[in-house]
Amino acid sequence: MLRAEIGLFLVMAFIAYFYFSAEKKHSLLHETFSALLVAVLIHLVLDGITVYTVNHLDTVPRLFNGIVHRLFISSMVLVIFLFYQYISILVAEETGKPRKLDLAGRIFLVGGILGSLLLPMEYTQTPIGNYSSGPYMLMCYAAVAFYLVLCACLMLENWQNIDKKKKSVIGAALLIEFTITSLQGYQHAWLVSCIGITLMTLSFYLTLENPDILRAELTEQKMSMLYLKSQVNPHFLYNTLDTIRIQAQLDGDKKVADLLMQLVDFFRLSVKVDRPIVDLDEEMELLEAYMELMCYRYPELECEYDIDPELGSAQVPNFILQPIVENSLLHGLKNKGYRGKVSIRAARTRDGDLEVCVRDTGSGFAEVRKSAIDRMLQNYAKEPPKLTGNSIGILNVQKRIKLLCGKKYGLWYTENPEGGVTAHILLPLEEEMQWKN
Model-level pTM greater than 0.70? Predict the structure, then answer.
C-alpha cells in the first residue's frame, strides 16, 4: 500500500511543480489552491509514514506512531477545509454573493484539529492490515461529512448562477470524495483516503487551474489590450481633423497649432506605455489629453476632475478610462448636443480599494439598453471578444480588469437621480500590483 502513497505523492509533486512555475493570476482563489497543493503534499507524506508505522507496531515507538497519526488526521481535516474554502470562493466569485458559511467552516476546522490531536486513539490489527481507530479517528469522517454538506448547500443555493463547467467539476469532486470515504468507512484497513484527496485535487487542477487555461486567459487579455491601444475611432479622427481644417480657415495658424499639439499629445501618450499596469497619474494624463480635444471641439462640453492626490501612484490597468469616457460622450451627451459635464472622481473606498467614477449629465440609458449593458458586464466571461459594435470599449475594459485584478473588481453602471449615468470602476489599491508581462 505504501507504494500507492509514494506514487500519488510523485504525481502531486509533479502537478505542484508545473502549477507554481506557471504564469498565473494572483488572486484569493489561486492562492487558496496553492495552499491546497502544499497541504495535500504534506498530507501524502504523513499518509505514507502512517501506513508504514501502523503495520510495524512491534518496531516503531508508540509515541512516534501516535504523533504522526494525529498529524495525519489533522492534515486531512485541513485539506478538506481548503477544498471547501476553494469551492466557497469560486461560488462567491461566480455569484457576487458574500461567503456566509465561512465562519462555521473555520470553527469546525479548529475543533476538528483539536479533536484529532487530543481525543483517545488506539490501534486495530487485522489479517489484511492494521489501522488506527478510536474517537480521534471520527474527526476525519466528521470533517468530510461537514464540509460536503456545506459545499452541497452552496451549490444548491446558487445552482442557477454557477457556470455549467464549474458545477460539473465541483459535483464530480464531491462525489469522488463521498465514494472514497464510504469505501474507507466500509473497510478501514484499505487505507484509500489518499486516493480521494488526490483525485479531487487533480479534477480541480485539470479543469479550473490548468496553466494552459491560465495562459490562454492572459493571452486574451494581452491581445485585447494591444487592440484597444491600437484602435482609434475613425469618426473621432475624421471629425477632429475636420475641426482643425475649419478652425484653420476661421482663426489662423495659432489655434491650429494648439489643436494639433493636443492631438499629437493624445497619440503620443496612447502609444508610449507598453505595460499592462500603469500609475493612475499616467492614465489620467492620457484622459486629460483626450478631453482637451473633445472640449475644444464641443465648447459647451465641460470636464471636471476630483482625484485624491495621494492616489497618483496607485496601479491601474492601462487604457481603461478613455473608452469609458468616450462611451459617456457617444451614448450620453451626444443626444444633448454635447452640452453637459463629465466628472471623473478617484477615491479610496471604505474597504481600502480604489474606485474611479465617470459621471455624466447626458440622456442616460434607455431601459432596454441598461438591462443589456448590465447583463453583458455580469456575463463578461461568456461574451466573445468584440472588435466591432457599440459596447466594444466597456466589454474589453471589463474583461481586462477581471483578468488583471480578480473577479472581485470590475465595471458597473448606475443611473443618476438628476439624469445621466455613472460608470463605477473598482480596482485593488496596491502600490505594485502582482502582474507579469
Answer: no
